[in-house]
Amino acid sequence: KILSFNESNVKVLEKLSDLYQNIEMYKEQLLILNLWLKSDASNSKAISQKKEAYKALGKDEVDVDKERWKSDPSNINFALDYLRSLRNSGLEKEIISVGEEMLVYDRTNKLVLEIIAESHLNLYNLNKAKEKYLFLYNNVNPDYGYSIEISKILVEELLFEDAYEWAEDAVLRSNKSPEAFFQRAEVLFDT
Q1: Secondary structure of residue 134 in the 3-state scheme
Q2: Helices 160-173 and 178-190, interaxial angle, to 10°?
């Protein structure tokens, strides 16, 4: 039994966490990990151990990243960690909802927009995915990869002329990328 210790001493907190983990006292370990993360919110070992403790207790590991993000919603690193956890869990609707919240802090964040667009594609929300890729192309970076994605969506929508224009744009922007040429061939094949 511990009577008292300095709650800001990270080395002591780390040793206590390791000890509780070794003797499988996960609830107590979580108390220590919360103190540790209060002192050092980005410590990867503490975050990893907290996820392991959650798993051992039958809790959802995604909640660790959710808690971190909720504690500081403007922190893009916490936000991206949370989105990755949601993606790893296949929670596409939550990705879109959380991602849209994150865009309040930076509406042109390329990674967040790409993750949202990909989730829309996975849910077969073609119009919404196309909107995100068009936004990325027009407002963030006119990258040929976005042209390819837009072209693929337009093929799905049977809009072959538009799909070909976007595939051609990809060829021109890509400096002769095989992927862009392949998409143009796919459009021609499908027409």
Answers
A1: helix
A2: 160
Dig out the tokens for 134 from the structure.
């068009």
Q: Are 110 and 140 in contact (CB under 8 A)?
A: yes
The total of other beta-carbon atoms located within 10 Å of residue 50's CB is 27
Residue 13 pLDDT greater than 70, yes or no: yes
- Rounded CA-CA distance 142/134 in Å is 9
d(CA 113, CA 107): 8
Cα-based distances in Å from 9 to 30, 101, 110: 16, 35, 38
Query: Is the pTM above the cut of 0.85?
Result: no
Which has the higher per-residue pLDDT, 135 or 30? 135
Where is average pLDDT lowest: 2-6, 61-65, 158-162, 186-190?
2-6
